[in-house]
Specification:
With about 375 residues, the protein is an alpha/beta fold. It folds into 2 domains: about 170 residues, Quinone Oxidoreductase, Chain A, domain 1, CATH 3.90.180; about 150 residues, NAD(P)-binding Rossmann-like Domain (Rossmann fold). The strands form 4 sheets. Strands 3, 5, 6, 10, 11, 18 and 19 form a 7-stranded mixed sheet that branches. It is globular and about 60 Å long. The structure holds zinc ion (2 copies). The site of one zinc ion (ZN) has 5 residues, from loops.
């Protein structure tokens, strides 16, 4: 079969012939239908991230996936040929208490692997095999948005983490039914937009700000779900004196992250999802003022990464809720569907012009 292969830390990516995988008795074989492209793929292709499986030079890329079961091992009971599935990405270390209880997103050893990213082949191939515990069956009505389920799971986990922090006092604003909680989403790429959808579905009053002021369909999608859009290119002053119970960051700038603490309401939470693109670039920081505000106003800063299977399942329930409330809003986040043979030019090209680029695999 064919697969897109990288050789980290060497930059570049090649469509290569690799062995066709055969499922063991407790595995299924999946024909890949679609793969989403994200910043992590770009980083790996640029040679800045990623590692091949042990003893190999090449890594099959791709982690945002959607496919169809084509073969089932003889001891598999939960899946059948023809089922459409999305695979989770992280595989636990098998050692720590979190990985041993299906919560590898909280792995303590760092010895986990991730398909298409760290030590394990990914899904940008014609086929893959895996065990059913890592595969989430997707109902037919969601087949056009299923490829978003992996990034959606990351947004789901982030929002659930933030809600637990906001709920740490029953008197946190919003819990007393006095007013809806206000959320600011920073970044209107796929991760920001999926977070905005989840937050709106969870009853938050949502504003989403694009710090770069890029012209995408984000503002149209946001108005469709009753959320506000702000072009943040002039700076945070565009938000005036507005303050937010939750600021969810999906923009990837450390300097901006600290600035965002000024937008938190008392008892608020800043949740960080973006990996900083400005790593290694020092910037001036009014640290004392930031810490003083955090202490005097019970505020929290927390990071969130990855998601376990539970959040993929929550994502599926939310896809149903999105459809019921807002029609095809999730599908609208897929701004481009291209044949996978175009992958190299897309991944090495300049910034994507839309929200989410999806590659269709095979014929
Ligand atoms: Zn991704
Ligand atoms: Zn672990």
């Amino acid at each position: 079969m064919h697969a897109w292969v990288v050789n980290p830390p060497v930059s570049g990516v090649h469509l290569e012939k690799v062995p066709d995988p055969a499922p063991g008795p407790d595995e299924v074989k999946v024909r890949v239908l679609e793969c989403g492209l994200c910043g992590t793929d770009r980083e790996i292709v640029a040679g800045r991230y990623g590692s091949p499986p042990p003893g190999r030079k090449g890594l099959v890329l791709g982690h945002e996936n959607f496919g169809e079961v084509v073969e089932v091992g003889r001891s598999v009971q939960d899946l059948r040929v023809g089922d459409e599935v999305v695979a989770t990405v992280r595989r636990g270390c098998g050692i720590c208490r979190f990985c041993r209880t299906q919560r590898s997103d909280f792995c303590e050893t760092g010895l986990f692997t991730e398909r298409g990213i760290k030590g394990r082949d990914g899904y940008l191939a014609e086929f893959y095999v895996d065990r059913p515990e890592y595969l989430v069956r997707v109902p037919r009505p969601h087949r056009l948005s299923a490829v978003l389920l992996e990034p959606l799971s990351v947004a789901e986990k982030a929002v659930q983490q933030a809600k637990r922090i906001l709920d740490r006092s029953e008197l946190t604003p919003g819990c007393d039914a006095g007013r809806p909680r206000k959320a600011l989403v920073v970044g209107t790429g796929a991760m920001g937009m999926l977070s905005a959808l989840v937050l709106a579905a969870e009853g938050f009053e949502v504003t989403a700000m694009d710090p770069r002021g890029e012209k995408t369909s984000a503002s149209t999608v946001l108005s469709g779900i009753g959320a506000k859009y702000r072009d943040g290119s002039p700076g945070l002053s565009v938000l005036g004196s507005e303050r937010f119970d939750l600021v969810l960051e999906a923009a990837g700038s450390a300097a901006l992250d600290f600035e965002l603490t000024t937008l938190l309401a008392p008892n608020g939470c800043l949740l960080l999802l973006g990996l900083p693109g400005d790593i290694g670039k020092p910037f001036p920081l009014a640290g004392g003022e930031i810490v003083q505000r955090l202490v005097l106003q019970n505020q929290a800063i927390v990071g969130s990464v990855n998601a376990n299977r539970r959040y993929f399942e929550l994502g599926l329930r939310h896809l149903t809720a999105f459809r019921r409330r807002w029609g095809t809003v999730a599908e609208q986040l897929v701004s481009q569907r291209l044949p996978w043979t175009d992958f190299e030019s897309v991944v090495t090209g300049r910034r994507p012009s839309g929200i989410k680029c999806v590659l269709t695999i095979g014929g």
